[in-house]
Amino acid sequence: MASRARLEDRECPLSTTVQHVGEWWTLLILHDAFDGYTRFDQFQQSLDISTSMLTARLKTLVADGLLERRPYQTSPVRHEYLLTERGRSLRPVIVALAAWGNQHLAPEERSMILVDAETGEEAEPVVVDAHTGRSLADSDAYVFAAGPAGSTGMRARYAELERQRRTRSAEVPAS
Question: What predicted TM-score, i.e. pTM, was given to this entire model?
Answer without folding.
Answer: 0.76
